[in-house]
Write a structure and sequence with these properties.
The chain is 38% helix and 18% strand. The chain is of the alpha/beta class. Helix 7 links the parallel strand 5 and strand 6. Bound molecules: pantoate (PAF). Pantoate (PAF) binds next to strand 2 and helix 6.
Length: 290
């Protein structure tokens, strides 16, 4: 596995890998990318394995992107576990890892921001102003550098997946955005690099987020369609029991693509939730099946 730390190194190594593949196979390789901020967990591993199965050249990027953290958020304390991350990538059969530093991605004369209006301004975008601008900017740069055919994103960050998909469509980027299933702990908590911030009491309370989401699915399957009633019933589960308070930031049923809030739920809609447990912000979502 090759590890590139600079854009120049990345371009050379990427080119060498493509030429070698072409010589051996007389065809152009399908290039895949899994963009990450490191601190790799089983959720990332499943994205990486998905990519390795489907692509001829597999690239993982590891970059904690300062542009997507607002002042006061956890940029400085975000977990940095590069040695372990590289082991995970190597074991999964990744060909190339790009792990640049901050100045390499944003040199002093850097000036451009990529913004998806509308879709990126609601839900997490409203709670974290500028967050998605940082995400779409860095993902555009990574797409420009790696030129992937397929890019893999976890649906735990459902809004992020839809925002990036919109960006790729609007900017005519020739990359398929591949959504991947959410990986969960046995008790239902969605895997996230931020779960490690939870205190034991917060960790014990956190599975109630998924319990509220699955309750919503049950009520919908039983025929309830009025969103206010769905949210009131399922939302009660969040703080039903001992332990710290789960503070609700938003809990909504939305159209799966436009992410517009619904008053009456329809099959195929998505339930989105964002909560805070102490200092930790946790998000999750589920589909409403027909
Ligand atoms: O989902 C993430 O880890 C980040 O938002 C991403 C897509 C790697 C961009 O920095």
């Amino acid at each position: 596995m090759i590890v590139a730390k600079t854009r120049a190194e990345l371009r050379i190594k990427r080119h060498e890998l493509i030429v070698a593949y072409h010589k051996a196979n007389l065809s152009r390789p399908v290039v895949g990318i899994v963009p990450t901020m490191g601190a790799l967990h089983a959720g990332h591993s499943s994205l990486i394995e998905h990519m390795v199965r489907e692509c001829d050249l597999s690239v993982v990027t590891i970059f904690i992107n300062p542009a997507q953290f607002a002042p006061g958020e956890d940029y400085d304390t975000y977990p940095r576990t590069l040695d372990n991350d590289l082991r995970v990538c190597e074991q999964a059969g990744v060909h190339l890892v790009f792990a640049p530093g901050k100045d390499e991605m944003y040199p002093a004369d850097y000036q451009t921001t990529v913004r998806v209006a509308g879709l990126a301004e609601q839900w997490c975008g409203a709670a974290r102003p500028g967050h998605f601008d940082g995400v779409t900017t860095v993902v555009s740069k990574l797409f420009g550098l790696i030129q992937p055919d397929r890019a893999y994103f976890g649906q735990k960050d459902y809004q992020q997946y839809r925002v990036i998909e919109r960006m790729a469509i609007d900017l005519e980027l020739s990359v398929d955005i591949v959504p991947c299933e959410i990986e969960r702990e046995p008790d239902g908590l969605a895997l996230s690099s931020r779960n490690r911030y939870l205190s034991p009491a917060e960790r014990a309370a956190a599975p109630r987020i998924y319990q509220a989401l699955t309750r919503m699915q049950e009520l919908f399957a039983e025929g309830e369609r009025e969103v206010a009633r769905l949210i009131a019933s399922a939302g009660r589960l969040l703080n039903d029991g001992p332990g710290p308070l789960i503070k609700l930031e938003y809990f909504a049923v939305v159209h799966p693509r436009s992410l517009q809030a619904r008053e009456t739920a329809e099959p195929g809609d998505r339930v989105l939730i964002a909560t805070r447990l102490g200092k930790t912000r946790l998000i999750d979502n589920v589909p409403l099946e027909g």
